[in-house]
Design goal:
By secondary structure, this protein is an all-alpha fold. 70% of the residues lie in helices and 1% in strands. It is built from 17 helices and two strands. The chain has a two-stranded antiparallel sheet with strand order 1-2. It is elongated, with a radius of gyration of 31 Å. About 2% of the residues have low confidence.
Length: 432
């Protein structure tokens, strides 16, 4: 396909020179005859322009496939993917130049689809990498390189997104410049320059005009040319960030999922001895093992995220601006925080949400286990405060209600979420 495109480009040059040569001779022939001449001269190219998407897609797919390494080491694959970002940009730029030269811009709708197909082939490498990383999530708290690999891959996708957005700008400019002479309000009625009529059928002319209008008017999508490619990459970003979350959150979820079946909730003792009253001070309780495991893991996260503490990491920040990382709330948060703080916020938020969900599954709580659970929540709250991401209001309310004496329930349970009040009341067996 690459050779075919090169040959077509060469033939196009020769055809243009021929038409330029005879243009002076036939200039007085009349507009209708000149257009007919253009149709006849360029007719051999029409079938190739009709098949332009396939030609470009094959060429780009072959090129991206040649970048793949045979090495099985994860870090080598990630390094290779990072270096391929610039190659993708160069490949698309070259295809844009080729499209303008061979089709005079009328092939841009086909080019956009071909770029998406070539990119999709490249993104298959990220999808295979995700499956490889997912299998190693059980060792993340012993082998922190798994997390580093995830973040490096996310950084590469963010870099690729930035490159595509820049390519949208440069390709749009080239597209408009190529087609302006025969499309749009500024078009000149030059009979030998009506390339859309010479090379396209009626449905394709309509598609070209619609794309020209979308690109020139700046309405609708911010990236009309590469929208399909950007959507594919955005989907890959989402999948990769979900994989990253799954890996980061596994040491936490593996502890929290134990909560509903812990014998602690039915016990009448704590580590400090038997308790028969709710009047014992909080220091009689110590945090349960499940929550100390969670806390210890959370406290080690910042040191492993230290390389990403700077807000100057534009590629990773761009990846997280997609707002697809579980626990993220909006697009503005990622732009205003460092990648590390963004991740800590997402993990903290997800920890609180998951913790509350598992607490809701505890069947019953007596006075002692209520105090124990309140202690566990407070311990987590201290950890999250140190990380700069405090407990959610639901968990804070849960801790308060768990400590509330039964005789004070009616007068002091007000002001808390109805959902939390109902959940704690049922677990503690508080009468209406």
């Amino acid at each position: 396909s690459g050779d075919t495109l090169a040959l077509l480009g060469d033939l196009r040059d020769k055809t243009d020179k021929f038409l330029d040569g005879v243009g002076g001779v036939v200039k007085d022939a009349g507009e209708a005859k000149l257009r007919e001449l253009g149709k006849v001269v360029y007719k051999p190219f029409a079938q190739y322009v009709a098949n332009y998407e396939e030609l470009e897609a094959r060429a780009m797919t072959a090129e991206v496939s040649s970048w793949a390494t045979e090495k099985k080491d994860t870090i080598d694959e990630i390094h290779n993917l990072a270096t391929c970002v610039g190659r993708v940009a160069s490949m698309v730029e070259s295809a844009g130049v080729r499209c303008g030269h061979l089709t005079r811009g009328v092939g841009y709708p086909a080019l956009a689809r071909a770029v998406a197909r070539g990119l999709d082939t490249h993104l298959d490498r990220y999808r295979r990498l995700m499956r490889r990383l997912e299998k190693r999530k059980v060792v993340v708290d012993d082998d922190w390189s798994v997390l580093q690999h995830c973040l490096s891959a996310n950084q590469a996708t963010g870099d690729l997104m930035l490159q595509l957005e820049q390519l949208e700008v440069t390709l749009s400019t080239s597209f408009l410049e190529s087609c302006r002479q025969f499309l749009g309000a500024d078009s000149a009625d030059l009979p030998l320059q009506q390339h859309h009529i010479f090379l396209l059928d009626s449905p394709s002319i309509i598609s070209l005009s619609e794309l020209f209008t979308a690109v020139s008017s700046n309405t609708g999508s911010a990236t009309p040319l590469l929208q399909q490619s950007i959507s594919l990459l955005s989907s890959t970003c989402s999948d990769l960030q979900k994989t990253t979350f799954s890996i980061m959150f596994h040491p936490i979820s593996s502890q929290l999922e134990l909560i509903p079946t812990l014998s602690t909730w039915a016990a009448t003792t704590t580590g400090q001895g038997t308790l028969h009253t709710t009047d014992m001070p909080d220091f009689s309780f110590s945090p349960s093992e499940y929550i100390t495991c969670v806390g210890e893991y959370l406290m080690t996260l910042p040191q492993h995220l230290e390389p990403y503490m700077s807000q100057d990491n534009a590629p990773l920040t761009r990846a997280f601006r997609e707002a697809v990382f579980p626990g993220s709330s909006d697009t503005s948060g990622a732009a205003q925080q460092s990648p590390a703080d963004f991740l800590l916020g997402c993990i903290s938020s997800s920890t609180c949400t998951s913790y509350f969900s598992y607490i809701s599954s505890i069947p019953t709580l007596n006075n002692n286990s209520s105090r124990q659970l309140a202690m566990d929540i407070s311990y987590l709250g201290d950890i999250l405060d140190d990380l700069g991401h405090p407990l959610t209001s639901d968990l804070s309310s849960t801790a308060v209600l768990l400590r509330l004496a039964m005789e004070k329930w009616r007068e002091e349970s007000g002001g808390h979420s109805n959902k939390v009040v109902a959940m704690v009341r049922q677990a503690r067996g508080v009468s209406e």
